[in-house]
Design brief:
The chain has 406 residues and is mainly α. 36% of the residues lie in helices and 8% in strands. A hairpin with a 2-residue loop joins strand 4 and strand 5.
Length: 406
């Protein structure tokens, strides 16, 4: 018969420190791992034995024989530990981090992936801004009334905008650019000629409305086939074609940039590589586009060439609309200093037209007669409320006696 097993109390116990000397074991594992890691690094760097360095230098720089000798005494666990500390290993990063996070090479600046992620980051930001749920209302057809020299120049300027802004875009992408130019032409805030719209701000150091007019792109001769296609798109747009996809859009930008002004406009959607926007409020709707074509395509004045976008630059001053300007205040916000005009609170009738770049008081100050009328109305309201309020119920408990005099 098999003897009964010893009870838990009868089993011999050995202290952990006596059974396994952990500290010497761990120290030996770490020393072996770092030794192998040093050999790995030396071999990858292509260094040979140091001249005149003795046994210590030879152990550090290492060789194939050293590698075989050191690794031959290790089990799989020790080899895996040594491989994890090998500084120049080529294993993929398990967290998906860009090159530069996994190891640090002091001989070169690490590439942390920021430069390559700039375009992708802008596209991610643009994707986070949803398009408006408001309906996109199409514009009325525009037929260029000019002929002769003015008509030829208008066609030339619109063809340049289509070519240099969207030469390799799909057909709808090119038609969308042409639609924006004609929308601006009919908006009260922009010049009243095709060339005036296209070349607005071209003489400014920065802030030209269409990038090709100030970045040197006009120095390059257009490709014949792409130019013919752009001309066809421009000619059709000037003959009344309307692209309904962008509606009353007056702004756009490429999807690989995230301009600061994008959140201030109504996002309509994306066509090709461009994202399109319109003005906010009524000035972004088709009924506000009441401007008429004035011609004079060759008359690009200094005011046009130096002009800026009034929607973004806040250049609609009260004086431009016949509103008397009041005092000005200068505010510094986030390191940016701007001067604002406070509209005259004594305007006739107390009514004022809202103008971009102007600050308005929330309401006008009431007259003394109006103050007396308001106070009388409040007294009357309080009296009527008191008449409707029921009397408080009589208390059944006797009133507490007054405390005795000291």
């Amino acid at each position: 018969m098999r003897p009964a097993p010893a009870s838990r109390q009868e089993r011999p116990t050995i202290p952990l420190r006596t059974a396994l000397p952990l500290r010497p074991l761990l120290a030996g594992l770490a020393a072996a791992a770092f030794a192998v890691a040093a050999v790995f690094a030396a071999l990858h760097a292509g260094r040979g034995p140091a001249a005149g360095g003795g046994a210590a230098a030879h152990a550090v720089t290492g060789s194939t024989r050293d590698m075989v000798r050191l690794t031959g005494r290790m089990d799989r666990a020790m080899l895996a530990l040594a491989a994890r500390h090998e500084p120049r290993r080529r294993a993929p990063d398990l967290w998906g981090r860009p090159p530069g996070w996994g190891d640090l090479d002091l001989s070169a600046v690490p590439d942390l992936g920021f430069a390559s992620a700039a375009d992708r980051t802008a596209q991610e930001i643009n994707a986070l801004r949803p398009a408006s749920l408001l309906p996109i209302r199409p514009m009325r057809p525009f037929v260029l009334p000019a002929t002769g020299a003015d008509g030829a120049r208008a066609l030339q300027c619109l063809s340049q905008a289509v070519y240099y802004e969207a030469a390799r875009e799909p057909l709808k992408g090119q038609q969308a650019v042409a639609q924006v130019v004609l929308n601006r032409l009919r908006h009260p805030a922009y010049p009243k000629s095709v060339c005036g719209v296209v070349y607005q701000g071209a003489a400014r150091v920065s802030g030209c409305q269409f990038t090709f007019t100030c970045d040197g792109a006009l120095r390059f001769t257009p490709q014949a086939a792409l130019w013919s296609r752009a001309q066809a798109v421009a000619r059709r747009a000037l003959s009344g074609f309307v692209l309904k996809d962008v509606g009353s859009a007056t702004h756009y930008h490429a999807d690989y940039v995230a301009p600061y002004w994008a959140p201030t406009l109504v996002k309509l959607g994306q066509v090709g590589a461009h994202i399109f926007y319109r003005w906010t409020g009524p000035w972004g709707e088709p009924p506000a586009f009441t401007g008429r074509y004035l011609g004079g395509e060759a008359n690009l004045t200094q005011a046009v060439l130096q002009g800026a976008d009034p929607r973004i630059g806040n250049l609609l001053a009260p004086e431009a609309q016949g509103i008397l300007a009041g005092r000005t205040v200068t505010l510094a916000v986030a390191g940016e200093v701007r001067t604002y005009t406070i509209a005259d609170p004594k305007a006739e009738g107390g009514r004022r037209t809202r103008v971009l770049g102007a600050i308005y008081a929330p309401r006008r100050r009431p007259t003394p007669d109006e103050v007396r009328e308001i106070n009388a109305s409040l007294v009357d309201l309080e009296t009527r409320l008191d008449e409707k309020r029921p009397d408080p119920p009589a208390s059944s408990s006797p009133a507490p006696a007054a405390p005795p005099a000291p």
